[in-house]
Write a structure and sequence with these properties.
The structure is a single chain. The chain has three helices and four strands. The chain is an alpha/beta fold. It has a single domain, classed as NAD(P)-binding Rossmann-like Domain (Rossmann fold). It has a four-stranded parallel beta sheet with strand order 3-2-1-4, with helices on both faces. Helix 1 packs parallel to helix 2. The longest helix has 15 residues. It is globular.
């Protein structure tokens, strides 16, 4: 498998492009943190699909605009898989004026 043993955090992975990237990585053998802000059920489904496809995955809530949440996400990845090899930032933000 092309990503076997790699650990990747994918932000905004509950839906859309982030979800597709997370599933593809896990199906390629990667360990994936499926990060979401509000899409818990969707992120859990993405993680389950990834686990069924050859890699490992976990859904993890966090706001990537928060330093504390980012540190926690990284810590969870390292605690579970021992390392982080990559980051795909697919989280969107809204600016209100």
């Amino acid at each position: 498998m092309e990503y076997e043993g790699r650990t990747v955090i994918v932000t905004g992975a509950g839906t859309g492009v982030g979800a597709a990237a997370a599933e593809r990585l896990a199906k390629g053998g990667a360990n994936v943190v499926v990060n979401y802000s509000r899409s818990r059920d969707e992120a859990e489904a993405v993680a389950a699909a990834g686990r069924g496809g050859g890699g490992d995955a976990m859904a993890a809530q966090g706001d990537v605009a928060s330093d504390e949440d980012c540190k926690r996400l990284a810590g969870e990845a390292v605690a579970r898989w021992g390392r982080i090899d990559g980051l795909i930032n697919s989280a969107g933000t809204t600016v209100f004026r």
